[in-house]
Amino acid sequence: QQQVKQSPQSLIVQKGGISIINCAYENTAFDYFPWYQQFPGKGPALLIAIRPDVSEKKEGRFTISFNKSAKQFSLHIMDSQPGDSATYFCAADNTGKLIFGQGTTLQVKP
Amino acid sequence: ETGVTQSPTHLIKTRGQQVTLRCSSQSGHNTVSWYQQALGQGPQFIFQYYREEENGRGNFPPRFSGLQFPNYSSELNVNALELDDSALYLCASSFIGLGTVYEQYFGPGTRLTVT
Predict the structure, then answer these.
(1) Which of A43, A95, A102 has its CB closest to that of B56?
(2) What confidence tens digit (pLDDT) does each residue in B74-112 have?
(3) I want to staple A19 with a disulfide (CB 3.0 to 4.6 A). Which of A7, A77, A79, B52 is the partner?
(4) How far apart (Å, rounded) are the C-alpha atoms in residues B105 and B115?
(5) Is A37 helix (H, G, I), strand (E, B) or coil?
(6) Cβ separation A89–B90 shorter than 8 A
(7) Strands, E assignment, chain B
(8) Do residues A105 and A77 lie in contact, with contact meaning Cβ atoms separated by under 8 Å?
(9) What is the rounded CA–CA span in Å between residue B96 and residue B114?
């Protein structure tokens, strides 16, 4: 019940395209859903986060879509850039203990 | 940059040895969480410290222990190192207030290699 499943494992997108990463969770007690971006050799950086009282949150080129009934949420990166090439992790939380997905390695081709 | 610092950056230890990793939390934060990230995996929660007390623990054996100091910095200690302990150890800083947990900000991590 504590799992967060993330897909796809890897993603290749052309510059200017839309990158979409999906996550599903089981524990309905989760009430905070952040996305982290991690570059090689660095710690994860908080990108954007959502709570289940809204269905969508947008910050710049990054949007989280949240479907409470399906227990799914996704990250959309609009106008993807080569600098967005990194590993992305979704996570879920309700007690301050983040449960992470397995990660998606995104490559944006110039 | 998050303002969370960790030391050392890299560490090589031998199986059976003990190791101490350190973390300084971001200014204004009162909570430190530790995570283990194996190569190619997502971070796994080890434990969290709030007000110098352990405030939750993940599925890690007792040879993983920690401390939080009055200035909210923290240490992670691992005894009897095993080869599988080789990983990136991440510290995350956050604020807990009025029962609400706020965003966690990660440090750069300590890369531990056990040979």
Answers:
(1) A95
(2) 999 999 999 999 999 999 999 887 767 778 999 999 999
(3) A77
(4) 30
(5) strand
(6) no
(7) 5-7, 10-13, 19-24, 31-37, 44-50, 53-57, 64-68, 74-78, 87-94, 96-97, 100-101, 105-106, 110-114
(8) no
(9) 34
